[in-house]
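BUG: 3D viewer hangs when loading the predicted structure for this chain

Environment: internal workstation, default settings.
Expected: structure renders.
Actual: progress bar stalls at 90%.

Input used:
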Amino acid sequence: MDPHEQVSSRSLANAYAYVEGKFVPLLDAKISIMTHAFLYGSAIFEGIRGYYNPEHDDVYILRLADHYTRMRNNGRILMMDMEQTAQQLADLTVEIVRKCGYHEDIYIRPMAYKSAQRIGLRWDQQHEFLVFAVPMGSYLTKERPLNLMVSSWRRIQDNAIPPRAKVSGSYVNVSLAAAEAREGGFDEGILLNEDGTVSEAAGMNIFIVRSGTLITTPVYDNVLEGITRSAVFEIAQELKIPCEERTINRSELYFCDEVFLCGTGAEISGVGFIDRRKIGNGETGPITKKIQDVYFQAVRGNIPQYKKWLTPVWNR
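Structure tokens produced before the viewer hung:
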């Protein structure tokens, strides 16, 4: 389910956004229909999660500074030099969440966008930053392993629109794959590169397990440089699970031992079937479960060594 499908206007009645340099009620936050980013997709964005721990009565925002460091780097692709530092953007985000009064799991959407109001593809130096937060639970089902398909749509290439960056216009590519999968009765789609090798799922990195080794596609295979992906590497190292980054062929998906997806929205989600072929025994695999267990405890502040990932909202 798309994150915004889970949010009613009633639940956002007291929420705020930061847009064009000021705080405004979220339901009143608007930009012009002539905005360049709206007309041409010339924006970059991040998806950031915050997890509520009822025992601590706090919301922990996950990898907040890392997201804004990536966002500032991605801005270079669209020739946008963001004025605020990553820390200033992080502080602003905490302020938004506090103004909204959230004591629940949330999803945060910051965006930097070309803000000129005119027709024409030409870029200029006018750009703005906005951020808002909404309540959000699980994006993908946790009740069962996922059922995936390999999409007929191919992944965009680095010399078309760089997939390593979260460029708004490029998400039409993965949206086509996601829509195709869901219309076909699947949970999500996997995109291949033009040469037929595996890239990633629709907006999510993909990992497979073979003979106890965790394997994922490298960034040069047109994947997002995922922050959850890097967290999986860190957890695997702590668990002494060997990791490998290499190209994966489509057929290798069918006879690997385990598959899982990861991302801010997907979190860590086990896969049971791909193209109606059972992966392993069709259940979430043991290595996937180990990584899931650590991840879901870490994001709620229950594992001391991973508190470095977390920015508390209320107990600062």
